[in-house]
Amino acid sequence: MTIRTENIAKHYGGIPVLKGINLNITEGEYVAIMGPSGSGKSTLLHLIGGIDRPTEGRVWLQNHDLSALTDDQLATVRRRQIGFIFQIYNLIPVINARENVAMPLIIDGVKRQDALKRATAVLNIVGLQDHAEAFPGKLSGGQQQRVAIARALVIEPSIILADEPTGALDTRTGDEIMALLRQTIHQTRCTILVVTHDPRIAARTDRIITIRDGEIVDDTPLKRNAHLSGSVLTG
Ligand SMILES: Nc1ncnc2c1ncn2[C@@H]1O[C@H](COP(=O)(O)OP(=O)(O)OP(=O)(O)O)[C@@H](O)[C@H]1O
Ligand SMILES: [Mg+2]
């Protein structure tokens, strides 16, 4: 799915947090968003993902203008098209890994047994087949983030929005998590936006967008876009 923002601004209590962001992201593109704390990165992700609405301007996903949607319609787009991954995993502690992964499907009306079956398949993909019955509190940080990724992937999203997905993980586990996300792009046409403070992670994307004080100050395409031509990229 393509993402286009048309001069979007966001104010909180009259204070501008984003100031006229114009972005064009193509389908299957893997984009890093960088910038200092408080510069508006998470806010931008929330507007693109329809978690929040801009004060001015429009967000287009493919050819859909999100501003034309009711709150219910927006919630449906979020539920069916967008996989969110956060620094804090936001897993439900009182249900097991498989049930956590199945939850977006169950909320969307998929029959419980079918949802659990699909959750099992995605848990296999993220390497957690042996932990499907475990409750989140019994899993390591990296395993919990894998569950969160599986939960994002289970809906077969068109867009993945990841906000510092490795922020709470050690370097090695973070690398594994990012490798898993890259693998996802190879296998689907999913568009991925990842907010990161880690230059190593950013260097492995197709494009780095830098935000400062609510404005894009740099937008650099990288040459490493091998997945668009279908070749295998393991670095
Ligand atoms: N719901 C809100 N109400 C009021 N102000 C907000 C709200 N959400 C964000 N802000 C303010 O907007 C600015 C941008 O916040 P945002 O969370 O987008 O920054 P960020 O770039 O993601 O920072 P970080 O790297 O620390 O996560 C900050 O000054 C923040 O205090
Ligand atoms: Mg943030």
Supply the number of helical segments.
Answer: 7
Which superfamily, in CATH terms, is the homologous superfamily?
Answer: P-loop containing nucleotide triphosphate hydrolases
Taken as a percent bin, the fraction of beta residues is: 25-35%
Estimate percent helicity: 25-40%
Structural category is: alpha/beta
State Rg: 17 Å
Shape: globular
Mean pLDDT: 92
Q: What ions, cofactors and ligands are bound?
A: adenosine-5'-triphosphate, magnesium ion
Low-pLDDT parts are: 226-235
* String of helices and strands: EEEHEEHEHHHEHEHEE
The spatial strand order of the largest sheet comes to 6-7-8-3-9-10
The CATH topology annotation reads as Rossmann fold
- Domain module count: 1
Describe the largest sheet.
Answer: 6 strands, mixed
Which CATH architecture would you pick? 3-Layer(aba) Sandwich
What does this structure look like?
Helix content is 34%, strand content 26%. With 235 residues, it is an alpha/beta fold. It has one domain (3-229): P-loop containing nucleotide triphosphate hydrolases (Rossmann fold), CATH 3.40.50.300. A 6-stranded mixed beta sheet has the order 6-7-8-3-9-10, with helices on both faces. Strands 2-1-4-5 form a 4-stranded antiparallel beta sheet, covered by helices on one side. Strand 1 (3-12) and strand 2 form a beta hairpin. The two termini are 25 Å apart. It binds adenosine-5'-triphosphate and magnesium ion. Magnesium ion binds at residues 41-42, 163.
Secondary structure layout plus pairing:
Blueprint (H helix, E strand, L loop, with lengths): L2 E10 L2 E11 L4 E5 L6 H8 L7 E6 L2 E2 L5 H11 E5 L10 H11 L4 H14 L15 H13 L5 E5 L7 H17 L3 E5 L3 H5 L3 E6 L2 E7 L14
Parallel strand pairs: 3-8, 3-9, 6-7, 7-8
Antiparallel strand pairs: 1-2, 1-4, 4-5, 9-10
Helix pairs in contact: 3-4, 3-5, 4-5, 5-6
Bound molecules: adenosine-5'-triphosphate and magnesium ion.
